[in-house]
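Record 1 of the preview.
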Amino acid sequence: MAALAALIGMLAIATTSSAHKRLFNTTATITLAKATASGQIGGSGACRANRTVILFEDKDPNVIGDTAEIGRTTSTATGAWSIPAQGSVKAGRIYNVLAKKKLVLKNSKHKHVCKSALSENVTGT
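->
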């Protein structure tokens, strides 16, 4: 009976010690060239692939709330992405945002999360 209690105790410790949450940093770059906005997602392999990239335009940095979504896409396996620029894109400051991405590897207690990221602003011509 004592051996059974010890075994149950060891299993409980093993179960709780395997549960964890790990955060991974992610970076985002952006470049405007002709009629295309493109960039690269940086971070671990799983954090680069299949990330939703949302492109925003802020026409006047002195006005709060004039930011508008102007496109979205999904990154490739290597983290590359591109969005065709619409006519007004080149008028203001452009940046992209990545939402966080949850990775479930073993079970619901074993969570890896790719952090969200915000690129630097670039100004269109």
